[in-house]
């Protein structure tokens, strides 16, 4: 890693294959590759907690994360009294859970522009837009 990573920096997890040492340390998994987020905390042991941008999660993980967030929010709201629930602002009722990973700082690079990983949904939307553009050109 050529540049030091600091807390609150936007970072991307490097795109590499997990190796045997990663299984032992549990600091890197193949599904971490290309994820982008904010370095929330840098620890003295060379690890970092990274709050991942949900848009960079693969579709299946993003869906599971969203479902879990919704379930936790609903469980929390159901546990409140009607009076307490009515005092909450719309923003307080709409909280979202963070997706945070612990990774070695050597597996992080400063993020540049857009996230490195493009979701399948984004690719499908881009393909649909492109096909519509082609269809519109043929019609004109």
In short:
The chain has helices at residues 20-25, 59-79, 82-87, 90-93, 120-139, and strands at residues 10-13, 36-42, 47-52, 99-104, 108-110. With 140 residues, it is of the alpha+beta class.
End-to-end gap: 52 Å
Instruction: Give the helix/strand class.
Output: alpha+beta
Shape: flat
Please give the radius of gyration in angstroms: 20 Å
What are the secondary-structure elements, in order, as H or E? EHEEHHHEEH
Largest pleated sheet = 5 strands, antiparallel
Low-confidence stretches: none
Kindly report the spatial arrangement of strands forming the biggest sheet: 4-3-2-1-5
Note the total helix count: 5
Tell me the strand percentage band: 15-25%
Q: Which percent bin holds the helix content?
A: 40-55%
Mean pLDDT: 85
List keywords for this structure.
140 residues, alpha+beta, 5-stranded antiparallel sheet, 5 helices, 41% helix, flat
Describe this structure in words.
The protein is of the alpha+beta class and 140 residues long. It has one domain. Helix content is 41%, strand content 19%. The protein has 5 helices and 5 strands; from the N terminus they run βαββαααββα. The chain has helices at residues 20-25, 59-79, 82-87, 90-93, 120-139, and strands at residues 10-13, 36-42, 47-52, 99-104, 108-110. The chain has a 5-stranded antiparallel β-sheet with strand order 4-3-2-1-5, with no helix packed on it. A hairpin with a 4-residue loop joins strand 2 (36-42) and strand 3 (47-52). The longest helix has 21 residues, at 59-79. The radius of gyration is 20 Å and the shape is flat. The mean pLDDT is 85.
């Amino acid at each position: 890693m050529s540049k030091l990573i600091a807390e609150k920096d936007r970072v991307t997890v490097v795109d590499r294959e997990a190796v045997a040492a990663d299984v032992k340390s549990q600091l890197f998994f193949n599904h971490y590759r290309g994820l982008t987020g904010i370095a929330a905390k840098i620890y003295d042991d060379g690890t970092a907690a990274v709050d991942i941008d949900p848009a960079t999660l693969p579709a299946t993980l993003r869906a599971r994360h969203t479902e879990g967030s919704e379930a936790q929010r609903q469980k929390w709201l159901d546990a409140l009294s009607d009076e307490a629930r009515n005092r909450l602002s719309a923003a307080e009722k709409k909280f979202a859970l963070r997706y945070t990973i612990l990774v070695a700082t050597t597996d992080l690079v400063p993020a540049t522009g857009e996230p490195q990983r493009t979701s399948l949904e984004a690719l499908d939307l881009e393909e649909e837009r492109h096909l519509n553009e082609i269809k519109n050109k043929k019609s004109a």
